[in-house]
Write the structure tokens for this entry.
Amino acid sequence: MEEITNKIQQLAHHYLPDMTRFLRDMIRIPSESTQEANVIHRIESEMNKVGFDDVRIDRMGNIIGRIGSGKHVIAMDAHIDTVGIGERANWHFDPYEGTETADEIGGRGASDQEGGMAAMVYAGKIIKDLHLESDVTLLITGTVQEEDCDGLCWQYLIEKEKIRPEFVVITEPTSCRIYRGHRGRMEIKVSTRGISCHGSAPERGENAIYKMASIISELEALNHRLRDDSFLGKGTLTVSEISSLSPSRCAVADGCQISIDRRLTQGETMATALQEIRDLPSVKKAQATVELYSYNRPAYTGLVYPTEAYFPTWTIPEDHPVCQSVVMSYRKLFHEEPIVDKWTFSTNGVSIMGKHHIPCIGFGPGHEAEAHAPNEKTWKAELVKAAAMYALIPSTYIHTIHQLEEIAK
């Protein structure tokens, strides 16, 4: 095994110039949610170049590269859409041309999360080079619309493409730590209604904004009372948007609406989170409507695949065979103990594990703090480390499963 791990490490270092070039190419292609077509075709070209056994693009626009045809189906996923660049003046370099030093690659998507895609593709190359694909069907997926609606792409892959792997490696940035879960989230809308009248005599009407003001105050207090968990941390909520309706700026508002970003810890559900808000005295007094948003934005292919904006919490136990096989891969490659932790933000795992109960594990190049930030960057050493891990994980998992089967006998 040591000979194989040494070869994997050597090849991961050898392919760093190719990974760097590929990642910089992806960064140069703007690929915000629903506008990913060009970057998908760039990935298609690279997968074919390195010798994937099959490469295809589904109706939603996700790209699926296959290596091997064994009985154990394993997937590795990177969403390849990005957020926008925000205020251009906050960037010290062109976010799409990017930048490169001896140690770093900068640009929009470098950490979140096209770096994961670059490392996965060249892990596939290493697996092919060393003939490590026996007993495995490895699916490398580049998924779309995650920044808009995390998990939607994998809802489609599972429900329509009928892809159901034994587990999925999420390659979102983890600083090359092993992550085994994260909080869920919801996008909640609260609406109040009033009666408009002329602003010179507000006593004639009912101001929907004043009704909402009381609700916002109680929501702020509710945030401090939400459930806590020793691993995932505390559930949270914050008011993220507010808008109102009025016949004019000289009239009492007859409608008001807020959006709530609700983060769910272990034990919290869609039903409990909605009911907490509905039970607030101000909500009851205002007879406010509390509901989930839905998402139905067309993919770049034109496909519409609507879903509720509910993204469940998920974790897998530290002693789960998937987690243990990834920990074992890390030890074999790097001769040290990995840090096993969790993400702060949300990933496609909300659908894969949260909704469909397919185990997920996280390992990715780049850092969470770089996500959505100006001057986003990733580290070349982490690309090498991630590529080596992705190349070894499948065979280590198969070995772990065979050991468990022998014990069971």
Remarks:
- The CA atoms of residues 322 and 397 lie 7 Å apart.
- The first helix runs from residue 2 to 14.
- The two ends are 25 Å apart (CA to CA).
- The chain has a mean pLDDT of 97.
